[in-house]
Write a structure and sequence with these properties.
This protein has four helices and twelve strands; from the N terminus they run αβαβββαββββββββα. It has about 300 residues and is of the alpha+beta class. It has a six-stranded antiparallel beta sheet. It has a four-stranded antiparallel beta sheet with strand order 1-3-4-6, with no helix packed on it. Strands 10-11 form a two-stranded antiparallel ribbon. A hairpin with a 2-residue loop joins strand 3 and strand 4. The longest helix is centred in the first third of the chain and has 20 residues. It is elongated.
């Protein structure tokens, strides 16, 4: 047998073993059935977290199997099989990270009238008058049916109030976090850890005093990343609680208008919206990751691809 073809069959055999192992999912991974996401705005006193109730374990049943069985593979077939494996490897890599989004705007249903106002009352002093600031933070929740898959609570960092009142900017910090189910695939064997990242953007629609209309203008962005988070293990993310997100946001500009009752110009309560992109990435076993990262090149070499 040609040395190159023999090496190809050996590599295919190795990958088939990895497929058998890697295709066995961890029961708390790939959990996105009946998925929904929500943002809850917090005003006044921050709402205490409700304890996440333990839900019935949802296991992904079925017998794990590879894409094919190795039985007397002809030399002429190695190229075709190599192409199929390369497609599978790329598909498997995509399963180990997943994205989802949250948003809350004035068009969101079931909102209180003042829920998306940054301030409690109107102002006669200017667009960036911080008096009556009522927004305290927000909670993100990813639900899968009745299961709480992920919950993250961010709040305004009040350790430097002078920055808010004099500079007109605020920062966010993570107050609470919990994750019970991951969205991406997680191998049953090996660690059950993931990395998770949030991109948080605040937007506002307002009219400046000179009559300029600003529609859905971005007023600030934050980024928050956590590494090596273990599912259902609060100790693994305890170090991130109280940490600041990277970035800043200006306090929401008040829109200019006119009060007939006061017979003067006023600035409203500061309408805003929040948009969040979340990304979860699991970490396959080191040997599985090595195969994923290097097999496409090796199989291309076997196939004679340039």
């Amino acid at each position: 047998m040609h040395k190159k073809a023999y090496f190809g069959i050996v590599l295919i055999g190795l990958i088939n073993v990895i497929v058998l192992i890697g295709c066995i999912p961890y029961k708390y991974g790939s959990h996105d059935e009946n998925e929904s996401t929500a943002i809850n705005i917090m005003h006044g006193t921050i709402i205490k977290d409700k304890v996440l109730q333990e839900q019935e374990d949802v296991a992904m049943n079925g017998t794990a199997r590879g894409i094919f069985d190795i039985v007397n593979i002809p030399n002429s077939a190695t190229g075709i099989i190599a192409d199929k494996i390369k497609d599978w490897i790329q598909n498997e890599k995509d399963k180990y990270d997943d994205d989802y989004e949250f948003s809350i705007t004035s068009n969101s249903r079931h909102l209180n009238n003042d829920l998306l106002y940054f301030y409690k009352d109107v102002s006669s002093r200017g667009a960036f008058d911080p008096e009556g600031l009522q927004f305290k933070g927000f909670t993100l929740a990813r639900m899968c049916g009745k299961d709480t898959a992920m919950k993250a609570e961010f709040e305004i960092d009040t350790t430097n109030l002078w920055e808010i009142y004099s500079d007109g900017i605020f920062r966010l910090k993570l107050k609470n976090f919990a994750i019970n189910f991951a969205k991406p695939k997680i191998p049953k064997h090996g660690n059950h850890k993931i990395d998770i990242a949030f991109e948080i953007e605040f937007k506002s629609t307002y009219i400046s005093k000179d009559g300029q209309f600003h529609n859905d203008a971005s007023i600030g962005k934050f980024y928050f990343t956590m590494n090596d988070i273990e599912l259902r293990n609060s100790d693994s993310y305890k170090k991130y609680l109280g940490k600041n997100a990277v970035g800043t946001c200006i306090i929401v500009p008040r829109s200019y208008g006119y009060s007939k009752l006061r017979d003067q110009g006023i600035w409203n309560q500061g309408a805003f919206s929040i948009h969040v992109k979340a990304k979860e990435a699991s970490k396959p076993q080191k040997i599985n990751k090595f195969i994923q990262d290097n097999s496409i090149k090796l199989l291309s070499d076997i196939n004679g691809d340039n």
